[in-house]
C-alpha cells in the first residue's frame, strides 16, 4: 500500500492495521472508541508516516538529528529552540499539504480541534499528558495547515524531550500523527477517571467538571467540581464544589476560545446533574471494559448528549488499598551486594537463598506439604530494584516466626543487622504456616521447636560436618582449570557443585538464629543485671578472640608479610615508593631471593585468600586472583603503616569485673560463650561461602569465554548480564530465544543508566504490583545527629581517634586515615590493620568487618545516615567508637 492516496488519512472506516501503526496513541484510542459504538465527535488523523515523509523530503530530519545529538537534560531548552527554528524555516511539502487537505475535506468546513498524537502517547506506561501541542476551535484550511505543523514541532519541544529522557524513550526520530476532530460546543465538560487515582479504589469513579470547554480543567487553570461515585450503585460518596468564576467557550465569530464570567447563581452549584453523573458512570463501565483497565477519559455534554473526546490509561493510579504490601530493605545486604549488581549475581543469590532456607525449614521438621506452600515466598527472599539487591523483609520475618521466642528474636535481629523491625501491622501478616486446624499448626510448631533446640545444642558438630564435606568438594573443584573445558562441561561442573553444597548449606542457617536467641538472652540478662552498661560494651563482651576468627586470617597474614618487607633493606623502599601497578610489574621481573620470597608469599596468599576481596559475592567483580593489583595496594598500606596498634585492655571484661560477680557472672559468662561460639562458627561458614562464590565466579567466567568463542556473546563478560535460569535453559535446550547478544547488550546499557540514576531509598514499601505500584520510602523519625557537625550511628568498636578522613568506595590504599565509606564487605578486612578508624553509613554491629574491627581494636561506628554525603576527604574527624559519634572538627582544605 502506498501512502499517497486514501491511506494518508485515517478515519473510523479505515482498516485496524494501518490505524494501529500510523494513527498514534490518541488516534488509535479514538478509533477503538468509535468502533465500539461510543459517541465520539467525527475525526480524521494525518498519519505518522506523513510526518516522516515531510522530514525526509525537506531535509529537516538531518537538521533535527544534528541538534538531538547534543541533547541532555541540561541542553533540552537550547536543542528544542534550534529545532523549532528549523521547523519555522521549512515549508510544508506538497505531499504533506495534500494529506492534510484530505483530512480537512473528510470533516467538512467546520471548527476543529487539532491534537498531537505521538506513537507512544496515551499508553499504559506513558501518558505524555500536556507534553505535546493541541489547538481548539481551528477554522479554515490555512489555519489547520499551520496548526498541524506546530503539532509536529511539539514532538521536539523542550518538555517533550525532557520527558523522553527521563523515561528512557527514543528522542529521534519521533513518530507523530495529528488528529483533526470536530469541535463540540460543550455546556459542561471534564475528566472521568474510571478508578479513583488518589486512593487506588477500582470500585469508585472520580469525575471532575467545569462549565464550557474542559481546556481550563486539564491545564489546571480552572477550579473544578469533583465527585466520587460508587461504580456499582451510583451512590455519590463525596462532592467538592469548586469556585467556578469563569468558563471557556468557542469563539462565536472566529478561531480560538474566549473566556466569560459564570453566572454568579451557578458558581457554587454542582455543574453536573444526577442524570449526567449516572450517564458518566455507565460510560465508565463500557470504556474500561473496552480497554481492559482503568481509563482517564475527556468528555463533554452538548445538547444533552455525552461526547467522548479521548481516552487513555491512568498511568499514575495509587495502588489498591487492599493490595498486598511488601517491605524492602538493603541496610544489611548492601554489605554483600553493594551498588548496582549484575543479573547473574542476583539470580544466583536468589536461587541460593531459596534452596538454603527451604532446606533449613525441612531440617526444622516442616512437613513437605507445608514446604510446597511456603515455596511461594521462600523463592522470593530477595528483591531487585534498579539493579540493587534488597531483602524482602516480611518473608524473612516469616522464617523467624517459625521459631520459638519470636518477639525476642525479632528485636535482636533488628539490632544485630541494622534492619528495623516492620510495624506491628505489617508483622501481623507474617504467618509462615497454612494449616486447616489450630491443633495441626501447634504440632508443627512443637516439632520445629524441638528440632531447633537440638540443632542449637549440636551446632558445633553440625558446622564441623558441613565444613569437612565442604573442603572436600572445594579442593576437588578449585583444582580444575575451567578455561580448558567447553562451556557445557563447565556448566555440568557447576551443577555438581550446587548439588554437593547447597543441599548441605541449609543446616548452617541455624547459626544466625542461635546468635539471635543467645544474644537475646544475654540482652535480657544485661537489662536486668547491668541496666547502665554502655552500648559499645554490649557488643564488646561477645568479642571473639582474634586468633579464633577465621575472617582475621587474611589481615594477619598480610601484616606478617608487611613486617618482613618493612625490615628488608631491598624490599621496603621499593614497596613504599612504587604505585601498586608498578609494584606488580617490578615483582614480575625482579630477581634475587627477597623478590622471590615475596612472590612466593603473595602467591600463597592468593591461593588461600584470593577469593576474599571487596564485592566478593558479586560474580561480575574480579577477585584478587583475577586482579592482584588491589593486593599490592593493600600491601603498600600495611608496609607504610607498619607500627603495631597500641594494645588495649579488654574494656568489656573490665566492666564485667567491676559490675558483676558470683553466680550471676557465671550464668552471664555461660550465655555469652554461646554467643561467641556461634559467631565464631558463623565466620567459618561465611569464609566457606566466599570460596564457594569464588569457584562459581571462575566457572561463569569460563562459560562466558566459551559462549564468546561460539559467537553467542559479544564479550565474555556479557555472561554476567544473563540470569542463571537463562544459562540453564541455554544448556538444556529449553531457552525461549537464542539471541543472547542483544539481550546482554540491552542489560549492559541498562546497568550503565542505573549507575547514573539515584539509587532507590534504602528502605521502602510497595503495594500491589511491585514495579508499577506505589513505592513509598519507610524512613525512621529520629534524626541521626544534631544536623550540624556531629553525626551519630551505632557504636561498634570502642576507642577515640582524631584524624583525616578518607572517603572511599573500595579498600585500595586507604592509608593510615579514618576510613569513611558507604558500605563494606569481608574483603575490607585486609585494610583494617592500617586504618586509624572506620565509619560506615550502612552495615551492622555483627557484620564481618565489625567483628574483625573489634578483634583488631579499630574504633568503628556503623549505621550513620547521610555519612558519605556530609563527610568529604580531607576533613578532620573525631571518631568515638564507644559512643557512636563522628564529629567534623575541621573542614577539608579546599573548603
Describe the overall structure.
By secondary structure, this protein is of the alpha+beta class. Among the domains are: 1-182, Dna Ligase, domain 1; 184-318, ATP-grasp fold, B domain (D-amino Acid Aminotransferase, Chain A, domain 1); 324-457 and 759-766, no CATH class; 790-890, Glucose Oxidase, domain 1 (3-Layer(bba) Sandwich). It contains 32 helices and 26 strands. An eight-stranded mixed β-sheet has the order 19-26-25-21-22-23-24-20. Helix 18 packs antiparallel against helix 19 (487-505). The N and C termini lie far apart (68 Å). GO terms for molecular function: ATP binding; kinase activity. Residues 817-884 form the PEP-utilising enzyme mobile domain. InterPro entries: ATP_grasp_subdomain_1, PEP-util_enz_mobile_dom, PEP_Utilizing_Enz, Phosphohistidine_dom_sf, PPDK_AMP/ATP-bd.
List keywords for this structure.
26 strands, disordered N terminus, D-amino Acid Aminotransferase, Chain A, domain 1, 895 residues, 32 helices, Dna Ligase, domain 1, eight-stranded mixed sheet, single chain, alpha+beta
Helix content: 40-55%
Strand content: 15-25%
Which residues form runs of ≥5 with pLDDT under 50?
1-7, 781-786
CATH superfamily of the domain at 1-182: ATP-grasp fold, A domain
| Helical run tally | 32
- Main sheet: which strands, in order across? 19-26-25-21-22-23-24-20
Oligomer: single chain
Largest sheet: 8 strands, mixed
Mean pLDDT: 87
Alpha carbon gap, first and last residue: 68 Å
Over all CA atoms, what is the radius of gyration?
A: 34 Å
Remind me, CATH topology of the domain at 1-182?
Dna Ligase, domain 1
- Total strands: 26
InterPro entries: ATP_grasp_subdomain_1, PEP-util_enz_mobile_dom, PEP_Utilizing_Enz, Phosphohistidine_dom_sf, PPDK_AMP/ATP-bd
GO molecular function: ATP binding; kinase activity
Pfam families: PEP-utilizers, PPDK_N
Keywords: Pyruvate
